[in-house]
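REQUEST FORM: STRUCTURE PREDICTION
Request ID: SP-0412
Submitted by: Lab K.M.
Chain count: 1
Length (residues): 209
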Amino acid sequence: IIVFRNFEKKKGVLKVENDFFGFKKYSVIIEPIYIDINCWRINDEKVFSVRREDNMCGLLSIENDIILNFEYISIYAFTKDQKSQIRNTKNELFSFDFNSGKIEKLPFDQILFTQSNTYGAPTGKNCHYHKSIINSIETKIDSYDTDITEYIGKWGIIDSSFNTIIPNKYDYIDFLRNQNHFKIAIGNPEFENNGENLVLKNMKWGIID
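STATUS: Completed
RESULT:
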């Protein structure tokens, strides 16, 4: 299976097979009419996240059947529980369960893939957890915005099925190398650039389990 681009810079999907004589035979399984295509493997199935020219996104099977209708502005990679976060035109966040096809509204503004500002973290079960944010405000601190420099809001932790592990009541939360503990902060975050790094101010820190 190959994602290809035609002369009009539209993307499609090719299936490549060897014929009786050993020559490669190419057949188009998804026509090159999309501006972007990503291929994911879910339950040993290939699934394609595609974006149309109108910037609406959907999911297609390898048979070019629609798995998720083109009603969303973004579709994120699936978690280990075969669930994806999807965002509609009202900027609302939903979960999509690949196995059941069920769509549910999520109570979060943002869900961040597993990452940490702590060296060596996360570990163990926390590698499948995510940071969630409510009441979020996107910041414009620098061109490398990520994590706490990207959003201000109330932070928490959810699992790979988007169930709450730590409620959204902290002004920041982060993973530690110990998988049973989390670093938390409360306060009014401000950033100061000392010429080399961004320094976070006005925060009190603690550790919870």
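NOTES: The two ends are 45 Å apart (CA to CA).
Reviewed by: T.R.
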